[in-house]
Structure formats: C-alpha cells, structure tokens
Amino acid sequence: MVAGLVGLAMAELAAAVLRARLSPVAAVGEAVIEVTPGGVAERAIEAVGQWDKPLLLSGVVLGLLLGCACAGVIGVRRPRGGTLLMVALAAIAFAASVTRPDAAPTSFLPSIIGGGAGVFTYQWLLPRALAVVGKRSEEPTGRRKFLVAAGGLLVGAAVVAWASRWVGQARRGVEQARSSLRLALASVSTPDGADLGVRGVVPWVTPTTDFYRIDTALAPPLVSPADWELRIHGLVERELTISYDELLARGLQDAWITLCCVSNEVGGDLISNAQWSGVPIADLLAEAGVSPDADALLSTSQDGWTAGTPLSALTDGRDALLAVGMNGVPLPIEHGFPVRMVVPGLYGFVSATKWVVEWEVTRFADFTAYWTDRGWSPDGPVKTQSRIDTPRSGDRREPGPTRVGGVAWAQHTGIERVEVRVDDGEWQEATLAREPSIDSWVQWVHGWDAEPGDHTLAVRATDRSGYIQTGAQADTVPDGATGWHTVEVSVA
Ligand SMILES: Nc1nc2c(c(=O)[nH]1)N[C@H]1C(S)=C(S)[C@@H](COP(=O)(O)O)O[C@H]1N2
Ligand SMILES: [Mo]
C-alpha cells in the first residue's frame, strides 16, 4: 500500500506538471462512469447527491490500495506474482488515460511514471518486509528498518502529493490572470497575398498551438502580470524597474515576425510565424540611457536562462519588441507569459528570452550566456534559408504538371528570389507570395512538369543583400545549419 501511495503521488505530480486534464485516478473515474449503465449511475447519484464525484474518486483510490494490499499478501510467497499485480494496476490507469476522448500525446505519461514508481517501490520494499515476516520479528532491527523505510516513503509521497496540488494551483492562478487580461491587441488576419494556399505548404501564419516551442524549462515559469517586473540596469544612466501596467501604458505595436531556432536542421520545422504585440525595446533602452561603452543586452528569464543580444540589433529601428501578445491574444504561458523578447533577424537563443525579468546593459567581453556556455556562438543572425514543404521526401506524383512549394526566410534582410532545381538541371525561378514584412518568411510555389522516374528536387534562396544561399552543408552547432533542402520524389 505504501508503494501504491508513492505511485499515486508521482502520477498526480506528473499530471499537474504536464497539465493533463485528468490525473490517472480521475481518468479511471471517468472510465468507470463511461461503463456504468445509465440507470445504475442515476440511482447512485440520487443516493449520494453531489458527493458522487468525491466518492467515485475515493472509490478508485480505495480500489487501488486494495489491489496493492493483495499484491503485498501475494508477494510474501510469490514476489513475481505481486509485481505482476502492481503492473496490472498501472495498466488499468494507463488504459483509462489513453482511451479518454480528449487524450493528448502525453496522456500516457502520468500513469507510466506513477506505475513505474509504484512497481519500483514495491520491489524495493518487499524484501525488507519479507525480512520482518521471515524472522517472525524476533530481530528488532529488521522490523525497525522496514518501518523507517516505509515511513520515509510515506512522508515522501505526502510531500510529492502536496507539491502536485501546489503546481496545479499556481498554474490555474496564472491561467486565470491571463484570461482576465483585456489587452488592446490587433486582431489577426493573414495579409493579402501572403498565403498562396498551396496544399502541403505550412500556413503563413502559424496557429499558436502549432508554433514550435524550445526552452530549458521542465515546467514553464508561472509569473502573474501583477508580480511581473523588469529591472533594467548595468551601463545605463538611470536604472529602471517597470511593472506590467507601466509597460502597457507605453503603447503597443504589432509586427509580423518569423521566429527561428538555431537548432533548426536544413528542412526542419523549428521555425514559425506570428503577429507579435509589444513595446519597442529601443524605447525602453532610450529611457534608461545606454552608455556608449555598451554593446550588449544580457537578458535573464524568471527561471534563470540568459541570452546576450547585440544592442545594435535592438536599436537600429527594426521591430525588436518586448512582447505581451501573440497572434492577437496575451502570450501563452509556454511562449513566455507575461512578457518576452522578440527580435527580427536573430535566432531565439540570442534574443527571444521568454518570461524575461532582467536586462543588464553590458559588453560582450564581460559575460557569457546560457548557450554560449554550452558551445554555441555568441552571435546569432538568422541564416538565409529555404524549405520544400511539398512534395515531401518519399512522395509519389503522377507525371505531368504539378506544384512544388514551400517557404524561404532571411529575416530583416528579405527574400529576393527562390529557385528550384530538378536533378542536375538548371535553377529555375519560383513564384514568390507577397511579402508583407521582410521580418517574416515568404511562401513560394513552382510549376513542375514531372517526368516519369525518380527525381531529386532542391531549393535555394537569394536574399536582398544579394547573397545566394550556400549549398555547403554546416551543422547547427555553433551558429546555424546551412545547405540546400532536397527531397526525393518518384513520378509514375
Ligand atoms: N526563458 C527562456 N527563454 C527562451 C529559451 C529558454 O530556454 N528559456 N529558449 C530560446 C530559444 S533557443 C528559442 S529558439 C526561442 C523559442 O521560442 P518559442 O518557444 O516561443 O518558440 O525561445 C528562446 N527563449
Ligand atoms: Mo533556439
């Protein structure tokens, strides 16, 4: 039973951290409701009134503990059998979790984590329990050892259960603060002509739920707007501390900016486009008065992550924003709520600090940041790149006219031209969509008269500085991948 409680606590914690709608216990409860005949359920509810849910959940927990007690009894003679029963109990929770109609890809995790913890604890505790039973408690140290171990585990389980409550509540509190905000954000609609609507090409505006996510946070920092402050210090004339309301009072601007991760492989999907709303970073730096000696802004997030950004990129007039909104709504918690940075033209790891709380105006010579400490470059301008979204590698197409399409990007430089090459043929110019901003990616499409056989398609972009995207392949480390994206298609 101790093992069962340990597993239960771990499952609750995993569910809270993963923001699962249901913990495994609740999932089993829902499954019970599902298989209970309507008449029986109605009579039960009539009998117990609004206690139906707490009773059901307690029933599930009791059932679990009963099962665990059986596993304990069985384990005295057949440790294997006891383990098997523990695994079966976890399997019930697993089955209930993944068969919920709204099950997410991660729904199985809490039951696996909790089940694993329970089975592991059972196997660890059982020999100690057997030592007591076997010696008929004549040896007091065996008994004491077992009691200490079991007691310690129970206390641990209680702490974990309490932590899971706390995690869940903190999350709900911030979620509520977020949904009660009334920000003056531009509504989002795709600018005319930006989306070519080619099937298989990602939408020009990335829906927020599909926006890539990269951070080092196991669970996202939970910061309420009421508690948020940005401290600006370092090589400035005036130190400033700005609250959320003070930030909003400066007025919001909207900008289309395509954010990209330096870890994006050639052809990868760690790139997304959104409309960001926020206050120009340059305005805040001007208020603080930046010293001419400084060349960097070291930004720190609530969870201690850091990035170093060239001051030049923040003050040269581009839409570098201290953002509070994304695609017309307050930033989602995962994307940096309540406030993050977004800088066109720079990879996220040197510029896009989420949950940002501190700015130090400083010099690159005087610090290192989170990823520069781990082998990545201190500089991170986005490299001009292009990607084929359709066809995909391995696709089969009918012979005849067909469409090749994708996206290209050179944030804050702009895309001049995209070319497609079939096998060893000539580079042929593709048609570009309208580009509402040089800070976002551009869709392209190319008509291809596909001839039977196996073909390799390649794409390359030329940006408005005249630079033609290199075909030389470079790894993502230390400052971004290069090379042409190619796909293999068979035409038959
Ligand atoms: N606090 C914090 N901010 C962060 C990161 C992080 O790990 N922690 N990762 C950065 C990286 S590497 C990228 S690519 C972008 C990704 O932003 P997104 O998750 O909103 O897409 O956030 C940046 N900001
Ligand atoms: Mo990144």
Explain what the structure shows.
- The protein has 492 residues and is α+β, with helices and mostly antiparallel strands.
- It has three domains: 167 residues, no CATH class; 167 residues, Oxidoreductase, molybdopterin-binding domain (Sulfite Oxidase, Chain A, domain 2, Alpha-Beta Complex); 107 residues, Immunoglobulin-like (Sandwich), CATH 2.60.40.
- Helix content is 35%, strand content 23%.
- It is built from ten helices and 19 strands.
- It has a five-stranded mixed beta sheet with strand order 2-1-10-5-6.
- β14 and β15 form a beta hairpin.
- Bound molecules: the ligand Nc1nc2c(c(=O)[nH]1)N[C@H]1C(S)=C(S)[C@@H](COP(=O)(O)O)O[C@H]1N2 and molybdenum atom.
- The site of molybdenum atom has 7 residues, from loops.
